[in-house]
Amino acid sequence: MAGMINKRRTIEYCWVVREVALDTEELVCSEKSAPRLFRFIDDRFPVIAERRYKFQLVRSAYCIDTDNLMDRQEAELVKGEDGKYTLPDNFEYPCGGLGVKVPGSLKQALKRAQK
Known about the structure:
There is one protein chain. The protein is of the alpha+beta class. The protein is built from two helices and eight strands. The strands form three sheets. It has a four-stranded antiparallel beta sheet with strand order 2-1-3-4, with helices on one face. Strands 5-6 form a two-stranded antiparallel ribbon. The chain has a two-stranded antiparallel ribbon with strand order 7-8. Helix 1 runs parallel beside helix 2 (104-113). The longest helix is centred in the middle third of the chain and has 11 residues, at 34-44. The chain is globular and about 45 Å long. Residues 1-5 have low confidence and may be disordered.
């Protein structure tokens, strides 16, 4: 059928650290697991005063048939008063707009990684 959208896809999650400047962002670290992300953070930080970092969970959906990126959403980790990071309820699209729910299993993985 013409115009049908192929819903067959694979979803990948990646924990990332981005260095943020006035007008650019540079990827510093990309990890498949939350514990490895926090080992990277513990090894490289405290943060240098002039630099700002953004910690995120990125959700990428790839077409199974072509391996092309179909969709990308981000959830920024938020540091609480207790110094622990949490995830929001939903991902967001880079250009704005609400995305899908952040899986509870990934929220739990983040909690366990910070113990």
